[in-house]
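RECORD TYPE: inverse folding
INPUT: structure tokens
STRUCTURE:
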């Protein structure tokens, strides 16, 4: 199955990963993917150690040097968002840009991070501070990779899928109520269609692409202050932001309940953690958003500035 836009093409098929093995290039592969799929042990291989720390300046330099030594001019990124972000940045900067194939292996990467061209590394604790927007030649999605992924990582991806449903809802998304990793192609392709269409309209992220930040203003703050995964944080973030949207008459109670049920069905939290501290969270949000508290609620309202007073009153 192929999903495409003017900027990119995604091919989704079980077993398609075999084609990847025939590509001639520099393979950047996540360490856990390599353990589960040892056939990826290619000659020109750069192993990306699991974890956010791999998106460092030092690791970027090591990857560039290994790529240069290999003499290859095509990069094949096989892994989750960490591998994809690092490989994308290497591909876009080495010799001012070389060919890139994204082969996402987490649900989050299949439906979100491998699409849209954003890449980057961290500058110390500042996430994704250095990066570019550079479209891969192709995104190759093999849902069979999901079979070795932990339940927690599946939930992380599902939170993003539910985000698409919440903002752009289509009936076919009801499959999310009974998500089955052995039968996930519909959900993946629906999400890819949405993301590609949004990116085609606003590749540089100056307008409608902000809709993809729904749940993330509150979510990012929670992720940084509490020990929550990205999926857990944006799950809570979405519900809390929907409550704010309700105060502004942008959403119905019925819709909030529908999204809440969907998140809970997929083992995602919807309430603040017990040790939640509103002041800490608001401070973090102001820091993250450079002082202005901006929210994206839906296709029409994706740049809504709210005051700290309003949030203190309503974010409970
Ligand atoms: N570029 C973008 O548009 C974009 C969007 C969202 C997130 N991101 C970035 O993506 C990153 C998070 O990505 P992620 O959630 O995919 O995490 P990840 O890449 O860290 O992978 C999560 C874990 O799963 C393991 N793993 C990956 N594939 C596996 C498989 N098939 N089987 C078993 N284990 C596997 C990895 O080793 C890792 O431990 C963050 O750095 C975030 O900033 C980027």
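DESIGNED SEQUENCE:
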């Amino acid at each position: 199955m192929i999903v495409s836009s003017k900027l990119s093409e995604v091919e989704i098929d079980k077993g398609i990963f075999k084609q990847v093995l025939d590509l001639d290039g520099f393979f950047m592969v996540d360490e856990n993917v390599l353990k589960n799929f040892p056939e990826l042990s290619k000659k020109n291989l750069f192993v990306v150690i699991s974890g956010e720390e791999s998106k460092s300046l030092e690791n970027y330099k090591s990857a560039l040097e290994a790529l240069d030594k290999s003499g290859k001019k095509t990069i094949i990124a096989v892994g989750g968002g960490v591998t994809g972000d690092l490989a994308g940045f290497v591909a876009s900067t080495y010799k001012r840009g070389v060919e890139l194939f994204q082969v996402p292996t987490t649900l989050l990467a299949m439906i979100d991070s491998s699409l849209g061209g954003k890449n980057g590394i961290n500058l110390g604790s500042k996430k994704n501070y250095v990066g570019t927007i550079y479209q891969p030649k192709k995104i190759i999605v093999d849902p069979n990779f999901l079979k070795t992924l932990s339940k927690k990582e599946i939930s992380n991806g599902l939170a993003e899928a539910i985000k698409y449903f919440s903002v752009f809802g289509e009936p076919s998304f009801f499959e999310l109520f009974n998500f089955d990793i052995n039968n996930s192609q519909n959900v993946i392709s629906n999400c890819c269609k949405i993301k590609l269409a949004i990116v085609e309209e606003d590749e540089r992220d100056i307008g409608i692409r902000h809709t993809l930040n729904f749940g993330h203003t509150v979510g990012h703050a929670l992720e940084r202050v509490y020990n929550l995964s990205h999926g857990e944080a944006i799950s809570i973030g979405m519900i809390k932001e929907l409550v704010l949207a309700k105060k502004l008459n942008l959403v119905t109670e019925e819709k909030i309940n529908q999204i809440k049920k969907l998140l809970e069905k997929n083992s995602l939290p919807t309430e603040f953690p017990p040790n939640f501290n509103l002041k800490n969270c608001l401070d973090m949000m102001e820091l993250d958003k450079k002082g202005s508290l901006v929210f994206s609620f839906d296709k029409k309202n994706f740049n809504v500035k709210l005051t700290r007073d309003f949030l203190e009153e309503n974010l409970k």
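NOTES: The mean pLDDT is 94.
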